Amino acid sequence: MKGYGYFGIMFFCLSVFMGSTGAQLQMECIFHDCFVRGCDASVLLNTTSSSNQTEKVAAPNLTLRGFDFIEKIKSLLEAACPAVVSCADIVALVARDAVVATGGPFWRVPTGRRDGTVSRSSEALSKYPTSNKQLHQSADTFC
């Protein structure tokens, strides 16, 4: 987490505080975020008009939780160093640290992502693998 200084420790401590349930929530969040437009935190965007429903309100994402946790971290970071750490990096780092905190492996997370500004419910509906697809169709979703 080059350039983030002590915030690397903060992410880890917050992830430990979250526990295993929080780890699951953050892994689901990054999975759903990365599937649609890449890992850009677009799943965090709220719907602002009825003509543009965001990923957050798409049927596959209605069970996602933990958005408030990400928002709390973003608030802490903004207070300490405004406009330095993106929500996209926060989602990725918290997911990784939550896995590590619950006994999973560590991996490097490149930072410097930019937050997405586009989020469409229709894209979330069309991009996720579903249980009614053939195996080869679901496998193609991951490629």
Automatic annotation (TrEMBL):
Its cofactor is Ca(2+); heme b. Disulfide bonds join C34-C39. Residues 31-143 form the Plant heme peroxidase family profile domain. InterPro entries: Haem_peroxidase, Haem_peroxidase_sf, Peroxidase_pln. Its EC number is 1.11.1.7. Keywords: Calcium, Disulfide bond, Heme, Iron, Metal-binding, Oxidoreductase, Peroxidase, Signal. It catalyses: 2 a phenolic donor + H2O2 = 2 a phenolic radical donor + 2 H2O. Residues 1-23 form the signal peptide. The keyword Oxidoreductase applies. Ca(2+) binds at D33, V36, G38, D40, S42, E55. Substrate binds at P129. It comes from the Eukaryota. The keyword Oxidoreductase applies. The active site is at H32 (proton acceptor). One of its GO terms (molecular function) is lactoperoxidase activity. GO terms for biological process: response to oxidative stress. Belongs to the peroxidase family. PANTHER family: PEROXIDASE 25-RELATED (PTHR31235). This is peroxidase. It comes from Salix udensis.
